[in-house]
Amino acid sequence: MRIEEGVLCLLYLFILVLIAVRFLSREKGKVIRRFRVGKAMTIGNRQVQEDNYGACQSADGFLAVLADGMGKNYGGKVSAQIAVDTMKRLFEQYHSSENPAYFFRRAFHQVNREILEELDDGKGGASLGAVLIKDNYLYYAVAGNVKIAVYRKDSLVPLSTGHTIDMLVEDRFLEGSITRQDALLMLENRRLYNYLGQDGFREIEFFDTPIFLKDKDIVVLMSDGIYEGMDWKTIEDALGGNKKCQQKAFDIIEVINAAKREEKDNASIVLVEGFL
Fold first, then answer.
1. Strand 61-70 relative to strand 205-206: parallel, antiparallel, unpaired?
2. For 19-29, what is the mean pLDDT?
3. 158 in helix, strand or coil?
4. Helix/strand/coil percentages in the chain, nearest 5
5. Torsions phi, psi of 198, nearest 5?
6. Could you read off the pLDDT of 87-102 as tens digits, one per residue?
């Protein structure tokens, strides 16, 4: 009996080890290829909706973009539309062998050229945020003040900083190139210094290291109308729970619409949840 019991114990242990190895290898090797997307926007109290967004998927990855236009006489609306359409068109030509950083540089500069071809310099422009998900890794790029973040385990972690004067000042102060007094004077200036649709367009901000995404992580793209119109904790709370991505996006926009503020900018949000 003791020998038989020992053999059975070894057999059970062997089976448990096999199950554990199989589970771990499955989790490590499984590639996220399915995505739930939530998109919502509000015009605020502006006369024109100048935000735009889009998402598309191919065998080589998943792309989501959000553009926040600016300009007079529909210049911002046109610029945002050009930005989204151009990014989606170029992504259709994207292949897995292409470096994501190169794709973003090429695509953003093409967007800049196409806006300038359609509108004279100064007539319109757009901030643009884009994410590319490939083999469970998140790559992102930003020009302007669209913010990109990842929601995981009840925390919303910002990835991008943006191209506003206050962020530039903070970088310059940390480098030691401006004084503390000068920095304090300019820290409240959130005006854009870099965006798409200008002859002096500069380099984009993009990932240093790609982010490995886990099952049920939510990638968030939002215009300044969102993150300046509600506090960070409220956004985190809205992203929690078991609601579908689309409903979470609607809930966030409802908070923006219900806020009692004299000035309400266009506000847009895109949520991308990958699952195994």
1. unpaired
2. 46
3. strand
4. 40, 25, 35
5. -140, 150
6. 999 999 998 888 999 9
